[in-house]
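Annotators were shown the component list below and the corresponding predicted structure, then asked to write short factual statements about the assembly.
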Amino acid sequence: MNDREKALIEAKANVLKALGHPTRLWMAEQLAGGEKCVCELAENIDADFSTISKHLSLLKQAGVVIDEKRGKQVYYRLKVPCILNFMPCIEAVLQATAQTHIDLMEHKRVAGQIDVL
Amino acid sequence: MNDREKALIEAKANVLKALGHPTRLWMAEQLAGGEKCVCELAENIDADFSTISKHLSLLKQAGVVIDEKRGKQVYYRLKVPCILNFMPCIEAVLQATAQTHIDLMEHKRVAGQIDVL
DNA sequence: TTTACATTTGGTTGTTTTACCAAATAAGCA
DNA sequence: TGCTTATTTGGTAAAACAACCAAATGTAAA
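Structure shown to annotators:
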C-alpha cells in the first residue's frame, strides 16, 4: 500500500469515525430532514452546550456538515446528503447479530444447556 | 428519544466506529473480495500480530465480520457484504471537502491575499 | 508426544476522546 | 451603548483506545 492509498483510507476512516458516536450519528440523522440550528438540535440532547458544539465542529471538520451563521444562530446541514443512505445496511448488520444471538439461545435450549448454567 | 431509540442509535454508531479506523476499514475492504485468513491480512499490515488480532476481534464484536477456524488458520469474512456499499458516498464527502479547499485557495488568489500572508 | 505454527489473551503504557465548567465572542435588541 | 441570547473556545479530569511485548492456546506435522 503506497502513501496515497494510505492517506485515502485514513481520510475515509475519519469520516466513519466522525459518525461513530451516538450523539453525532443522531445529529446527522436529524440533519437529513433539513438544516437545523444548534439550539434545535440541543433541545433533544442531554449534554452541555459546549459538548454539543464540539460534536458539531468535529462533524464539520470531517466534512460531513457545513454551518452557516444567520443572525444570532448557527445553522448546520449535511454537506453530502447520501451520507445516511447506508443506514439500512448498518441495521442489517445489527439484525444479523441479533439473529445470531437468537440462534445461539435456541441451540442452548435444544441441547438443554440452559438448565446447567 | 426513548430507551429503545437510544439503544438503536448506539448500536449503529458502534458499527460505524468499528469501521472508523484505517486498519479496520482496510481489512473490511479486503474482505469484500472474499474471505481471508489472518496471516493473509497481516502480510500487508505493518503491526504486531496481536494488534491485528485485536482489530479483527473488534470488527467481529461489532458484527461486521465472522470468523471460522479451519485447520491451523482462522478465516474472516464480511457478515453483511453491503457494509462497503457506501464507500462511494464517503469518497464524495472527501471530494466535496477537497473542492472547498480548492475554492478557498482560488478566492485567495483572486483577492490577492496570498501575497500578504 | 514433542515441536512448530497461527492466532489470541493479558498486561502495560502513551495517546485520544469525551464531558463538564468557566470564560470568550458575536449579533440583535433595549 | 450596554444587555441578553446563541454559540464557541480553553482547560481539565476521567474513560476509552491502540500498540507493543510476553505468554497462553489450539492444531498439525514430525
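Statements collected:
1. Residues 37-39, 49-50, 52-54, 56-57, 69, 71-74 of chain A lie near DNA strand D (CB under 10 Å from a C1').
2. The radius of gyration of chain A is 20 Å.
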